[in-house]
Structure formats: C-alpha cells, structure tokens
Amino acid sequence: MYSIILAIHNIMRWVVVILIVIAAVRAYMGWFNKRDWTEADRKAGSFAAMAMDIQILLGLALYFFLSPLIRSAFQDFRAAMKLVDLRFFAIEHVLFMFLAVVFTHLGSVLPRKAEESGDKHKRAALAFSLALLMIVIGMPWMRPLLPGLH
C-alpha cells in the first residue's frame, strides 16, 4: 500500500506543478496584458487548488500512517534531526508543502475579493508564484522524477 500511495503522490506532484504553472501564467498574462478576469482564469486556480488538495491528502496518509521513513524519524526525533534525509521528510518537506497549499488556496480565493480585473490577476499571480517557490524548495529532488525511473 505504501509504495502505491507513494507512486501516486510522486506522479501527482507533476500534475500540481503543471496546474499551478498554468494558473500563474494565466494570471501574469492577464495582469500584464490588462485583460479581464475570466471564468477560465477562475477555473485554472480552482483546478490547481483541487489538485493540491488531493496531493496533500496523499501526503498526509504517507506522513501519518504509511511511511517507514517518518515512523523511524519519530522513534528518535533528536537523532533524526541530525540526518539530512530524515529531517527533510519529517520537518522541511511538510512545512514547505503546507505553505504551498496555503498559497495555492490564496491564489484561488484572493481574486474573488478584488473588484478590478488587474487586481484579481495580480493577487493570483503573486500567490501562485509563492506556491511554486514553496514547491521548488520543498520538493524531494533526490527522489526519482517519476516512479520506476532511477
């Protein structure tokens, strides 16, 4: 079960990245080209947030129930903090991905609070950019880019 959920989580990270990039690009293009906020812009942000929600659920299942790596980290937390891989997955990955979830949701919600299209695009662009930054910082680049590839 662990390897299946981990593989899905690994594949899903690329879906999330692609959807957030699409939402960010739409937001920047709308902001810089001064175009109206459209239903497609709203949907791009919503799809990115939905994909992120699926990803976080998979990650939480791994973190709290399935991951032998996390289980071993919490058996001796002090010792785990001295090991780069264990510390990364036990603390750093979780922190940055939590922030990515927050920024992704802000990217889909904050535009609704703005009156002007330019402000909607600007808010979405900044939030999705921060989400992407958190993902890039917190992504486990030491893992294979796709399951089965080494």
Structure description:
The chain contains 6 helices and no strands. It is elongated and about 55 Å long. The protein is mostly helical and 150 residues long. The protein has one domain (2-138).
Mean pLDDT: 95
- The counted number of beta strands is 0
Q: Give the count of structural domains.
A: 1
Main β-sheet: number of strands, strand sense, barrel status?
none
SSE series:
HHHHHH
Radius of gyration (CA) equals 17 Å
Find the structural class using helix and strand composition. Answer: mainly alpha
Summarize the structure.
The protein has 150 residues and is mostly helical.
Topology:
Layout: H1 2-32, H2 39-66, H3 68-75, H4 77-80, H5 84-113, H6 117-138
Features:
150 residues, mainly alpha, 6 helices
